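Reminder: ligand-aware prediction takes two inputs, not one.
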Amino acid sequence: HTPRSEAVSKSIWSELLQLTAEYKAVNLGQGFPDFPLVSFAQEALSNAVNGGFHMHQYTRGHGHLPLVKILAKFFGRILGRDIHPTEDILVTMGAYQAIFYAVQALVYEDDEVIILEPSYHCYEPMTLMAGGKPVHVPLKPQKVTGRTVSSADWVFSSEELTSKFNSQTKVIIINNPSNPLGKVFQREELQMIADLCIKHDVICISDEVYELLTYDGAQHIKIATFPGMWERTVTIGTAGKIFGVTGWKVGWAIGPRHILDHMQKIHQNSVQHCPTPTQEAVAVCFQREFDTFGTEESFFTQQLMLLQAKRLRLTECLRSIGLQPFVPDGGYFIVTDISTLKVDLDEPNTKDEPYDYRFVKWLIKEKGLSTIPVSAFCTPEHRADFQNYIRICFVKDDSTLKATEDILRKWK
Ligand code: PMP
Ligand code: GLN
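Here is what comes back for the chain with glutamine:
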């Protein structure tokens, strides 16, 4: 047998993180807030850590009870159905692990897994490590004239998607709102995916880590709410993105117990327990948000206003040097076409690298700005199709955005 890890190629993340540190570049690469967390979250964690001795011992393996109870209440209200706190939910080390478990539970040798491209970078390696075959369907920007370009311009062809479903198809992984594009799927797009899942008996893994971050009134719709879809959907979330605490690594999967049961067994035989204090703190934060949901006091409402302003600031900054960023409807990132800048990077020994990889490295070294190449979110064979775009994180402190503006202003 070939080792499982051989199926997956080296990721560009560590190389870029290292380069960013080495050149002390302004970091708009990795998706995390570089400003202090909200005080109630800090307090919740501090109270948990300073709580009774039991806060420092194992808690319930499939999820700290106060956390699964409030997750069931919070997401039950959004889903419009009763969620069983212990049977329909599993708490994991971040969304990453929940996706890994879902793929391990559902995908077997030669099963096909449909992935929309560009997509979050772990879906393909996780599929390969489970023995499955990734089947890619590209999202392509439609040529739209006369209005601002937005993440909604990136669409899949319905004929192409339909043609990829067959008797080997086991799973489709969607990411809504998406990373890197910030695409929030329209009802019709989700309906088409749901119809195909039902027709071909396919399970949907729906990565919704940015579900509470949609801008300018864009509406996030959960595919699990479509008729016939609860039974065949695993919805993934993380406190990292919901409360801006990526280092806590508290994630979860919510879905029907016939699937969750497999995932719980995999968890039981790999990690078994997630840390107690962070789960307790997330439970307290969710209770606060459950009670204030939709009011001005809600952190979610305040966070949206803050992030919307940052998104606008960075968009305008990019436009000032002649770029045309795709304004995202949701999430943490802005994708922009870089080909219009016409930066000539034909260094002889790097020609086999996609243009965006070379551009991003050049941007770190020459301009002191760190971003992520969009082709890193595509399978190696398709990288050339997506090599004219970079991803920029706007969930950054005003001082970071100011430093970015200074760099871009000098560029003009
Ligand atoms: N899915 C997507 C789309 C993400 O952007 C991220 C990173 N926030 C994850 C999953 C992983 O989340 P976590 O850090 O909670 O594992
Ligand atoms: N989800 C984060 C991002 O997309 C972190 C990814 C990572 O560290 N590999 O930036």
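The chain has a mean pLDDT of 95. Residues 31, 94-96, 120, 175, 179, 207, 209, 238, 240-241, 246, 249, 251 surround 4'-deoxy-4'-aminopyridoxal-5'-phosphate (ligand 1) (CB under 6 Å). We will return to this case in the review session.
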